[in-house]
């Protein structure tokens, strides 16, 4: 695209201000530094930008040397979706584990400790929590990212999570409005559709967002989902009926509205990235999330110029863009003020493991003795969605090798039939007790078939379910962790050894 903007005039600065782009590398690129001086007010960190907390702190320090009131965003839900702990697995259980415990004070304490870590690294804007009600257990992208299937439970834990995080000066971004829980399509790949009536939506999907607004959430993220009962024509991110009429006018929300990643195929594959960004701002969004995939200077300049051109052509009212930019700057001011105030409570670094232990559900089918000899850990690996990513390790194997030296590990994927997979596990176990680790067994027939064969041959097998525990418990010992965070794996390993 031809560059239209030649200097940091007000229109250009506003167009840059509404973008929340990502970038490559673990240090601040020169192009990002330059654009910060021209009006860019936010950046986003992804797993590729994170090595250690010390490195992230240095990176955010470099960025703030250019602009002190910068919003530094991250997609850190804890649990399965982690960026700060992308290489190790999260130190905090995710939403579903917290919902299983159902202690809002615990949820508040976990999110407060997460916020403390983010703030210490210079991150002040978190694209979390997920307020989606897990109405569809086969949902391929939400699952354990939800607090649960009960609207009331999700609402009270969403509010607690927001309160805990924001007590540290880190802005919460409640997502995915108006609710992504009842979908069977991943919006990273296509446009999901929710075909329920408005009465159901108001009763089931909206209360958690109302609770977040009442708790003072500083941001809300839109969903790329088509909800015909609200708008038959456009997905939430591009719908003024959903973002302006419903969220702003009816629910009374006054904070920042952020889009989900705009390069997701639900938007870019249907409307085009640049046109989609213009439509989103026109519909009522204030900030554009981009950079999970496209993270170069050319993308930022193309989006900036698309917004400028839309204003000049009359497609996008200039006052709408100015209002969006002002909301971004208002949030930046809030985080700067909150940062100087600092957290009001002492650190609690053990809270993540405490919460993971409390979330465990252990089912025994008979007498199970404590283990003190090596085991074989068979980890059944499903395809991961893009939100979770494939960089983050999961499962109890590392901790079991520490607790039971000599234990072995094998990974099984859906490329094998159930019988072949079970035969692979039995051969690798070589007589050792087997710990079969699954993730959403109910969604993967090959996984269930492999367990059938394996348990027929070795009924003393221990089963650890680290996804949604929808399948009936089975095995001599069945342990449900309600998520695959590192601390969930540690808690599961402890339960395996205890018997």
Question: Any overview of this molecule?
Answer:
Strands 2-3-4-5-6-7 form a six-stranded parallel sheet. The chain has 499 residues and is α/β, with parallel strands linked by helices. The protein has helices at residues 10-17, 30-38, 53-64, 95-101, 104-120, 151-166, 198-205, 207-214, 240-250, 265-268, 273-283, 297-313, 318-341, 351-359, 397-403, 418-429, 445-457, 486-498; strands at residues 19-21, 42-45, 71-74, 125-126, 171-177, 219-222, 256-258, 288-290, 361-364, 375-381, 408-413, 433-438, 462-465, 477-480. It has 18 helices and 14 strands. Mean pLDDT is 93; it is low at 1-7. β6 (219-222), α9 and β7 (256-258) form a beta-alpha-beta unit. It starts with 9 loop residues before the first helix and ends with a helix. The longest helix is centred in the middle third of the chain and has 24 residues, at 318-341. α1 (10-17) crosses α12, α4 (95-101) packs across α14 and α6 (151-166) runs parallel beside α8.
């Amino acid at each position: 695209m031809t560059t239209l903007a030649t200097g940091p005039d007000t229109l250009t600065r506003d167009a840059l201000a509404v973008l929340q782009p990502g970038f490559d590398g673990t240090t601040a690129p020169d192009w990002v530094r330059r654009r910060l001086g021209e009006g860019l007010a936010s950046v986003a960190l992804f797993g590729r930008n994170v090595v250690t907390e010390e490195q992230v702190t240095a990176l955010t320090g470099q960025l703030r040397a250019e602009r002190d009131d910068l919003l530094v965003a991250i997609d850190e839900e804890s649990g399965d979706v982690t960026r700060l702990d992308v290489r190790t697995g999260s130190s905090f259980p995710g939403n579903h584990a917290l919902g299983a415990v159902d202690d809002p004070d615990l949820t508040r304490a976990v999110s407060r400790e997460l916020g403390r870590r983010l703030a210490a690294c210079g991150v002040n804007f978190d694209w979390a929590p997920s307020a989606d009600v897990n109405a569809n257990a086969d949902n391929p992208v939400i699952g354990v990212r939800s607090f649960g299937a009960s609207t009331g439970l999700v609402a009270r834990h969403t509010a607690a999570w927001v309160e805990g995080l924001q007590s540290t000066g880190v802005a919460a971004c409640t997502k995915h409005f108006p609710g992504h829980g009842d979908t069977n399509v991943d919006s990273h790949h296509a446009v999901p559709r929710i075909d329920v009536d408005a009465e159901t939506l108001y009763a089931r999907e909206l209360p958690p967002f109302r609770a977040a607004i009442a708790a003072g959430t500083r941001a809300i993220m839109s969903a790329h989902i088509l909800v015909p009962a609200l708008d038959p024509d456009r997905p939430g991110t591009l719908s003024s009926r959903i973002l302006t009429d419903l969220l702003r006018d009816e629910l009374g929300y006054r904070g920042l509205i952020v889009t989900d990643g705009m390069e997701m195929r639900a938007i870019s594959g249907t409307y085009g990235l640049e046109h989609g960004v213009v439509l989103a701002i026109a519909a009522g969004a204030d900030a554009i999330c981009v950079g999970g995939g496209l993270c170069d200077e050319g993308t930022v300049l193309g989006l900036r110029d698309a917004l400028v051109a839309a204003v000049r052509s009359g497609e996008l009212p200039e006052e709408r863009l100015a209002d969006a930019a002002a909301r971004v700057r208002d949030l930046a001011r809030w985080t700067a003020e909150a940062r100087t105030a600092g957290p009001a409570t002492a650190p609690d670094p053990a809270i993540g493991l405490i919460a993971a232990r409390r979330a465990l559900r252990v089912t025994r089918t008979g007498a199970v003795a404590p283990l003190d000899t090596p085991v074989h850990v068979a980890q059944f690996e499903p395809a991961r969605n893009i939100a979770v990513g494939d960089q983050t390790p999961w499962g109890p194997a590392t901790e079991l090798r520490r607790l039971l030296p000599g234990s072995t590990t094998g990974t099984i994927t859906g490329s094998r039939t159930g019988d072949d997979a079970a035969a692979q596990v039995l051969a690798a176990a070589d007589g050792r007790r087997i710990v079969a680790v699954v993730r959403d067994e109910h969604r993967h027939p090959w996984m269930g078939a492999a367990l059938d064969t394996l348990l027929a041959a070795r009924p003393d097998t221990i089963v650890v379910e680290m996804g949604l525990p929808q399948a009936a418990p089975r095995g001599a010992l069945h342990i449900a962790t309600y998520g695959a965070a590192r601390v969930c794996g540690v808690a599961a390993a402890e339960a395996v050894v205890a018997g």
